[in-house]
Amino acid sequence: MGINLTAIAGIIAKLAIDPVKRGLERNYRIIKIFEEIEINVLKPDFESVYAYTLVSYGVDKDPTELVKLFALKDVAAAFKAEFYMKEEGALRRTLDHNLTTNPDVRELKNHQFSIDDEINLFYAEFEKTTTSTAAPIQVLLAQTTIEEFHDEVKKISEKLAKEELKKEWEDSIRLDYKDFDLIDEDFWERVRIDSDIDHLYMYYTRTDSSPTKLLDVVANDFYISNENIDSELDRILIDTVQNCTTLIKILSKGGEGKSSYLYHLAKKHHRFYNVVLFRDLNKQILIQVESLLGDKPSLPLMFLMDNPSIYGEDLVQSGNNIIKRFRKNGIVVVLTEREFRYDKIDNIDTFEGTFNYRNEITYKANSLREPVFDKLFTFFQKEFKLTDDVREGAKRVYFKDERRSLSERTFAVIKHLRKEKQIEFAFDWEDWEKFAAANKPELEDLFLIIATFYQFGFNLDIDFCAKFLERIDAPGLIKTLGVSHNLPIYRESHRLTLRHETIAEWYFDPEEKIQRETVQDQSTSLKIF
Asked: How far is the C-alpha of 434 from the C-alpha of 524, rounded, in Å?
């Protein structure tokens, strides 16, 4: 056969993944295929008509492997024998043989399609071509000039170029952020494989509570479990009546480790419950969860939600939905939140009222103070060769005030060691200033903007932040933040946040000279609020 049908199939496959060519109207795409194989005129013979039929049939085909099937030489020969010589069944027999034995089309076994339907579609395209009054490619070229064709290509290319950055931004959010995770042993194994082992220490030295860091710490047993709270929660779970609905709210002041504890629960209980860790909540998400749980073992459910106040009305509105969809096998919902924020959630009583049993645990980390200090100081001692006398001084600072949370104690120790010039330590806002200066000076104010709101528990939308920055938009902001996974500002979906709320409070600590200088130098930035 003079025309290379396999080459046509290959071009169609490439066209299917090319964003410019895929955006062309159908006729333009057909012209593009023939232009690439350098055929401008098709003769009205079987080879030419079959080639055009292959293009017309395959230009929108999914999967494209079907085009490869009909491009096989013996398939084309069988079609000719059946169409012209009336050898009934020749095409079907040849197709079946190739589907069974030909490795070039083996991939089709993974797709669902009806071979009879595909035969009928190919026949229809062939008959339509043979009844045309002129060669098909000439008809198309008569309708469309080459100049118009290339203008169309240019127009689509320019449109895609304008949307490319936004698409990268949206795709990166979809890839890096998920609304929920189904927690099982495979999940924890993936986390362990992907863990940033070299930076686990930042969980203690920087109170890094970003979701990724919490997963890494728990997966690699770097987390110090709160056995007192474990015992209290275990008693509640033991007393939970089978097939009932139970709410457990774990409340505390900030900086005590309740978010870390929630991730610890996800690891501890994943063999006994179908555990779902939520990062967002609405009806559509619950539908997705219900669908995915259909393939899981028939176990009770455990839904985990950290800082549920950020869900707003969706939390309350989801109460009945959770009970309706998931009560069959019994469900335990565990929430962790700051006490003052939980009490201010509108209509929270309505949400709680949907559960058969309701329990409250006050999260206290008194028993963790000593082991957390040991973890913290062991890192500093290893890094800076500190003496035992320095350790004792730091320990006195750490345990000085009973009212301090774990994160506040960490801050006090770091300030003390820096003041005594025992360690070299850059706070997050100092790291951010260096990063912004080296990469995007326009982002220098971003830490101040986020911290101003985050100290009160408010996460800011990316678009909202971008409005207060000069010469940078939301997609550009996301692209810059993607330079490193260890930046002091990170994103959750469309929100920007710091590693921990306490860091925002550290930033505004009156004793921090850098804070006072930053606020003074950038006071005009605050006026825009």
From this structure: 21
What token pair was written down for 413? 């120790």
Is residue 488 reached through a cis peptide bond, with omega within 30 degrees of 0 on the bond before it?
A: no
* Bridge partner residues of 275 (DSSP): 183, 302
Work out the end-to-end distance of the chain between its first and last CA atoms, rounded to an integer number of angstroms.
73
Strand residues in 281-409 grouped as ranges (E): 301-306, 331-338, 357-362
| DSSP state string for 62-84 | SSTHHHHHHTSHHHHHHHHHHHH
Write out the DSSP string of 159-213.
Answer: HHHHHHHHHHHHHHHHHH--SEEEESHHHHHHHHHH--GGGTTHHHHS----HHH
**Which H helix or E strand runs over 495?**
strand 495-498
Task: Provide the 10 A C-beta neighbour count for residue 56.
Answer: 19
CATH code assigned to 180-364: 3.40.50.300
Determine which helix (DSSP H) or strand (DSSP E) holds 140, and give its type and residue range.
helix 136-143
- DSSP type of residue 458: P
The HSE-up count of residue 184 (CA atoms within 13 Å, CB side) is: 10
pLDDT of 113-133, one tens digit each? Answer: 888 888 888 888 887 766 654
Tokens of 479: 């692209």
Backbone angles phi, psi at 107, to 5 degrees: -60, -25
How many CA atoms lie less than 13 Å away from 11 in the CB half-sphere?
22
Residue 457, exposed/middle/buried by CB under 10 A (0-12, 13-18, 19+)? middle
Q: Residue 152 CA to chain centroid, in angstroms?
A: 34
- The segments of the chain whose pLDDT lies below 50 read 1, 17-25, 133-146, 149, 152-153, 156, 160-162, 165-177, 513, 515-516, 518-520, 522-529
Rg over CA atoms, the chain: 32
User: How far out from the chain centre does Cα 74 lie?
Assistant: 46
Q: Pick from 365, 366, 358: which is nearest to 264 by CA?
A: 365
For residue 519, give every residue at least 6 positions away whose Cβ sits within 8 Å of its Cβ, in sequence order, or none: 448, 526
CB 417 within 8 A of CB 394: yes
SS3 content of the chain, % helix, strand, coil (to 5): 60, 10, 30
Place of tokens 């009973």: 402
Is the CB of residue 26 less than 8 Å from the CB of residue 60?
yes
Global model pTM greater than 0.90: no
**Contact at 8 Å (CB) between 303 and 334?**
yes
Tokens of 501: 């709320």
Helix or strand (DSSP H, E) at 497:
strand 495-498
Task: Give whole-number Cα distances, 7 to 16, 34, 38, 133, in Å.
Answer: 14, 11, 11, 27
CA distance 157 to 65: 27
Which two three-digit tokens encode residue 24? 């062309």
| Structure letter (DSSP) for residue 134 | S
Nearest of 471, 476, 484, 479 to residue 434 by alpha carbon: 484
